[in-house]
Design goal:
By secondary structure, the chain is α/β, with parallel strands linked by helices. It has twelve helices and eight strands.
């Protein structure tokens, strides 16, 4: 088993990305620097952008300062939220797809079909969206450190984990990983079309298989234990028996011998992230709350005895 730490960065919109960078900066401030410790970084959806940030070689404090600065679109214009279908329309369609799905594979294929269906409306903005994603990345070449960027094949629903060896442009990989059906067009790479990797799982923590220690930052984690606030999307339906929910993935990792630590938003972070995590206005509050939470979380991540105990839980 690989002794290096695997860092898993889950999806969660603009707020989730900012919260993850805040957590990383807070942990580093308290003495646990994941930008140095992680030998593998897995990024899904908004976590794909965070993965590139973490692997950029930029100090965590500088990453946090960048998140707290107003984002700028190429050409100097402020970044807008996604310019797809109305959010309520997208979420209602996702609820319907989730309710009708009989398996994880069925859900993933149906969401891919939804993404392809929406291309006729969203395709005109594909180049601008790619440029916007590129502007968010601190680097546009693959790092030397192992990094996986998760997307799904829109035609088959199958998971794809892009890495440096795949020969895929990093900006294309991140654009694909963040292409949520209804809000962004599918992304064409080498003749195939791709959608957001968060459709399969917001975290895809099982891709850290074989690592002795796994740290999961999950902006959407814990939602099954607490009902969504009014106006908040509850997420795609993924019954535990399908085995793709975060709890099932963690259980399998631990059964294989991995020590797994999961950080989900605490009460203050959830309040800062709000009910619409796609809203760029949540980035500042979410990053600050994540930073404060990260400093509090550092103790349990650096205590070997506690790590071993939690691995047995």
């Amino acid at each position: 088993m690989d002794d290096e730490v695997a860092l898993v960065l889950g999806g969660g919109g603009a707020a989730g990305n900012a919260w993850e960078i805040g957590i990383v900066a807070g942990l580093a401030e308290a003495g646990y620097d994941l930008t140095d410790a992680a030998g593998l970084v897995v990024g899904t959806s908004a976590g794909a952008t965070a993965a590139v940030q973490v692997c950029s070689g930029i100090p965590p404090a500088t990453l946090l300062a960048s998140v707290l600065s107003p984002p700028v679109r190429p050409g100097g214009r402020n970044l807008d939220p996604t310019a797809g279908l109305p959010m309520a329309t997208v979420f209602e369609r996702m609820r319907a797809i989730g309710a009708a799905a009989t398996s994880a594979a069925d859900l993933q294929r149906a969401m891919g079909a939804f993404g392809l269906e929406c291309d006729s409306i969203l395709e005109a903005g594909a180049e601008q969206r790619r440029a916007t994603v590129a502007a968010r990345l601190p680097r546009q070449d693959w790092p030397d450190r192992p990094m996986l960027i998760v997307a799904l094949d829109a035609d088959t629903g199958e998971l794809v984990a892009f890495d440096r060896a795949a020969g895929v442009d990093l900006v294309d990989a991140v654009t694909a990983s963040t292409a949520l059906p209804g809000l962004a067009p599918t992304v064409s790479i080498n003749g195939a079309r791709y959608i957001d990797g968060g459709v399969r799982s917001p975290d895809n923590a099982d891709l850290a298989w074989g690592h002795a220690r796994v740290v999961v930052l999950s902006p959407l984690g814990g939602r099954r234990r607490t009902p969504p606030e009014p106006g908040q999307f509850e997420g795609l339906r993924r019954p535990p028996e399908w085995g793709i929910d975060l709890e099932s993935q963690i259980e399998r990792l631990r059964a294989n011998g991995s020590q797994v630590e999961v950080i989900t938003p605490d009460d203050a972070s959830r309040a800062a992230m709000g009910t619409n995590q796609m809203d760029p206005a949540t980035r500042g509050p979410a990053a600050r709350a994540g930073y404060d939470q990260g400093k509090r979380e550092a103790g349990r991540l650096t205590d070997p005895q506690l790590r071993a105990q939690r691995g047995r839980d």
